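Researcher: I'd like a structural prediction for the single chain below. Treat it as a standalone chain; there are no partners to consider.
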Amino acid sequence: MNRNVLFKFYDPVTLAGDQIRGECYLRITEEIPKAQIVLTFQTKMYSKIIEKRQIPYDQSNPQMIPEKLVEKTQRIQVTLDSPLRQPKQTQKKYELNGEIMYRVIRHYGTHESFVYTQELYTGQVKPGDYKFQFSIPTQYNMSSSFSYKSEDGLKQAKCGYKVTLRVDLPDEASTLMMESADVFINGRVTSEGEQFRQCEGNIVQYLCLNRGTVELSLKLNKNNFIPGEQIQVEYTLDNTRSQRSISRVEARLINKITFIDDDEIERIIENIKVFQQNLGGVNSGQKLERQNASLEIPKNLRATIKTSVIRNQYFLQMEAIADAFLTWLSVPVVCQIPINIQESQLPHKINLEGWNFLPIMNVSVNAFSNLTVQQSFIPT
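Model: Treating it as a single chain, here is the predicted structure.
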């Protein structure tokens, strides 16, 4: 981080539609006859999948693949790619790993990025420390902040926001300094009527054995949570019409990540169980009425997001399990409720020891008047 530019945000996470409020601190070390100080707020959203397909390759005949299209594994290039819609041949590249040749195909999902720009100050600036408050508007339909990168680096996605302070020298057509800071946003959740939902398991008869039916219902006090929070669950397990005992009820949280490329093709990146807890069962002919359980959400979960490029979803599932012979032939007794995970960040502390602020330029920025739209940048 550039120690000459610091940011302080009043709220670690901003709700979409609210204003991002904070202060920016700027240290000028030498007099500038004419400077232009600009503050911008930028959004970026993309998904990228690198797919490698092994193809026939004869090492004794290197002309099979033009050398200029071959990448060494030590240095992967993406300069021939473009997130824009280009002819297919510009997306075809190759990678040589020892004696194995791979065809490398990249699937992009892109979204227009919005840039809000505000000119804060133009004129002479003397050496010293300066600060100003800012209040940046956000859009009501903005999605929660999200970042994903697989361990092998072949799958990436981001929905990110950042604030940038730039000091330009207009007479020299150059930039003296520039510094950015990430901003975290929580998307708006559904209406209250949607939040309080109840999901009931269908009546199920075990196949072939005619051992009766089991009914399971599930209810949550809400469906909007932050990582580390407790989920309060109320469930009813009716085993009065079954001859099988239910040994346990398995509660689990499923995380499903999907990328959608520019051709609207959906690819499931992850569909994993991030949490599991076993609850008590019930004997044959008995019923558990309105049982309460507390489940702790893992602290490292990414926020829920649903856009045309990225979907990150969570589902709380409860399954009644009978550990008996041939029960695997039956239809599972499963309840499922989608839940929303919000972005959560700790307050960021900055050290202003040694800073002595001058009164000039201690201005307040309350609105961004300029709005531009540009093609989102796809990092390599």
